[in-house]
Amino acid sequence: MRACVPLIVAALCSLAWAEDPKEPEPFLELEEEMLEAPPGHLYSAPSSCQARCHEAFDRHQPCHCDARCPEFGNCCQDFEGLCGHHEGFSYSSDAITKEELQSISEKIYRADVNKAQKQDIILNSQNRISPSEARDQVDRCPEPLFTYVNEKLFSKPTYAAFINLLNNYERATGRGEHLGAQQLAEQDAFLGAVMGTAVLKELDGFLRQQNRYSSEQEFVNDLKNMWFGLYSRGNEEKDSSGFEHVFSGEIKKGKVTGFHNWIRFYMQEKEGLVDYYSHIYDGPWDSYPDVLAMQFNWDGYYKEVGSAFIGSSPEFEFALYSLCFIARPGKLCQLSLGGYPLAIQTYPWDKSTYGNGKKYIATAYVVSSTQ
Asked: Which prosthetic group or cofactor does it need (predicted)?
């Protein structure tokens, strides 16, 4: 994949790769909020399914134990252990198996015709460090990460619609987001653009086959809510959304959170706002998309480990993160891309809901791959 440096494939030195080469091993990226959050707050279900299995839905409950809570991502933390016997939905006819996730992710991978080609990106990954050095905040890479990007990519409809969204947010949590008619129209334009791609058509067809949605419009409406619905990470202000956090990035308590997108990284690096420091992992793919787990400074704030797909189209990332949030909310989602295993972690936001108790996306990112 690298045009200017040899391919480096690495993972955390403290973790040995699984003996089964088909099982991915994590490099354990952890969002800062997860590390800070006390039990029962933010990402943790605040109560139990003890003596509540398959009860009727009650919107006043902080978490749920009804038969469809896996569909809506609002089950209590111990639901699967106490009430469930299957992955995905709690009834077998609608369970999404690991094999089905790997199959659909391969179809999405093959459908990504808008991804970067080898000649479109020259990446200079430079120095790999050990995980123990990630907290040092030392810039070990004198050159930018991106030596060259063919910006003709950005004129493609999904790229252009995606880029239009990136300047719509205030990156500091605790400051309310106030979106006007133009910003809301840009959300619709992005959803319309990605839904017109083969990538999202694959995902839509799969999820409808799995009884998750009855129509494309129902799917689109849910995507809009789960990704763009506003909620509060800090004070009472609605200051965040899944899209802002995952793709654009935020600053919370003096640290970078989210920011898992290569296009955003490239554009901010080009403007002199991102300083690439090092990486701890470089994926095994010899074409795009690839995966890089890196350290960087974003206009004065440090990101200790930031994983990102490199060279993927916006619809590809949007589809995989959505798939994993719908099928495995709050759990490790094991996929397959080009014959290599890859895992994504998502978390629902537990402090507020939309619709009939559905959860917003709190975060989504790549957590593992294979050597």
From this structure: Mn(2+)
